[in-house]
Amino acid sequence: MNYWLVKSEPVKWSWDDQVKSKTTFWDGVRNYMAANNMKAMRNGDLAFFYHSNEGKEIVGVVEITKEFYLDPKDETGKFGMVDVTAVEKLPTPVTLAQIKADPALADMVLVKNSRLSVQPVTPAEWKRISGLGGLVAARPGSTIS
DNA sequence: GCCAACGTTGGC
DNA sequence: GCCAACGTTGGC
Fold first, then answer.
1. Chain B nucleotides with an atom closer than 7 Å to a protein C-beta
2. Which nucleotide is nearest to A32 (CA to C1')?
3. Which of the four, A36, A46, A78, A145, has the lowest number of CB atoms within 10 Å?
4. Is the pLDDT of residue A145 over 50?
């Protein structure tokens, strides 16, 4: 089981949109590093849902429910998407400021490479953020409030 | 709204 | 295959 973090501008696609649609494809990624991360995703992997620009905080958890497949809209045939399903909202959103201020999270890709839109999260980081966000377990179940 | 950081493109 | 120019992202 691997952990990830995906970013979205809430103006374009917010956590509330994700909850409403439950399962959606995560497309539009046109960056090799991000695409490679998507290819490494496996069914059942979990990802933090991060709001960039507006909010700048981790607001929820999604599960990868379909592994990487090509995007028919991408004529180069190089890029694709995965399906993600909303799992749980963080009782307390974890802000970028908090992450930056936390020595245990200072090495996160979110801090080091803020522009990467799909990034890996280590188990230690996952646990730490889950704690800060008020999630009881790393895999909290499927209760969306 | 500005601008720094960084990924991508394209000319050579 | 290098690298300058350009475009985009995202924090502030």
1. 5-8
2. B7
3. A145
4. no
- Nucleotides in C strand less than 7 A from protein CB: 8-12
**Reported pTM:** 0.92
Per-residue pLDDT at A137: 59
Residues 3-32 of A with CB under 7 A from strand B: 30-32
Q: Is the CB of A139 under 7 A from strand C?
A: no
Mind listing the pLDDT tens digit for each residue in A29-83? 999 999 999 999 999 999 999 999 999 999 999 999 999 999 888 877 889 999 9
Domain A3-132 maps to which CATH number in 3.40.50.300, 3.10.590.10, 3.30.70.3340, 3.40.190.10? Answer: 3.10.590.10
Can you give chain A as a three-state secondary structure string?
A: CCEEEEEECCCCCCHHHHHHHCEEEECCCCCHHHHHHHHCCCCCCEEEEEECCCCCEEEEEEEEEEEEEECCCCCCCCCEEEEEEEEEEEEEEEEHHHHHHCHHHCCCHHHHCCCCCEEEECHHHHHHHHHHHCCCCCCCCCCCC
